[in-house]
Design goal:
Belongs to the RutC family. This is 2-iminobutanoate/2-iminopropanoate deaminase. GO terms for molecular function: 2-iminobutanoate/2-iminopropanoate deaminase. InterPro entries: RutC-like_sf, YjgF/YER057c/UK114. By secondary structure, this protein is α+β, with helices and mostly antiparallel strands. The protein is 24% helix and 32% strand. The chain has a single domain (2-123), classed as RutC-like (60s Ribosomal Protein L30, Chain: A, 2-Layer Sandwich), CATH 3.30.1330. It has helices at 46-63, 84-95, and strands at residues 2-4, 6-7, 10-11, 19-22, 25-31, 71-78, 101-106, 116-123. The strands form two sheets. Strands 1-4-5-8-6-7 form a six-stranded mixed β-sheet, with helices on one face. Strand 2 (6-7) and strand 3 form a beta hairpin. The two termini are 13 Å apart.
């Protein structure tokens, strides 16, 4: 088992890895809309937060030796079910023809006040 604790300028602020690799499977921890260059939280419209969180997942799976087309499953936690259509539109454009298994979980609120958090499972 291997843990990825840093990706670019991003570093874990808690007791967790960005991803854990076990038997050629990559388990990505929940990602928010945090700018990987500045490490700043990027609050904004749900479309922008969704795209940045997806890009962060992609950056992490690439650091693990995978790519977004090898993502098998994702869980998207959204702060309001009314955001579903906007999230789905960004997600669809981001993945194109690739369609990982997916669960969308509406919540009351997410850490730091983000509107979305995304985790993933990929293979190498």
């Amino acid at each position: 088992m291997k843990s990825i604790l840093e990706v670019g300028n991003l570093k874990s602020n808690g007791h967790y890895a960005f991803a854990t690799i076990h038997q050629n499977t990559v388990y990505v921890s929940g990602q928010f809309a945090i700018n990987p260059e500045t490490r700043e939280k990027e609050f904004g419209p749900i479309e922008e937060e969704t795209l940045q969180a997806l890009k962060n997942v992609e950056m992490i799976v690439e650091a693990a030796g995978s790519k977004k087309e090898k993502i098998l499953r994702m869980t998207l936690y959204i702060s309001d079910i009314e955001l579903w259509d906007k999230v789905d539109a960004v997600y669809t454009e981001f993945f194109g023809e690739h369609q990982p298994a997916r669960t969308v979980v509406p919540t009351n609120e997410l850490h730091f006040g983000f509107k979305i958090e995304i985790d993933a499972i990929s293979y190498i």
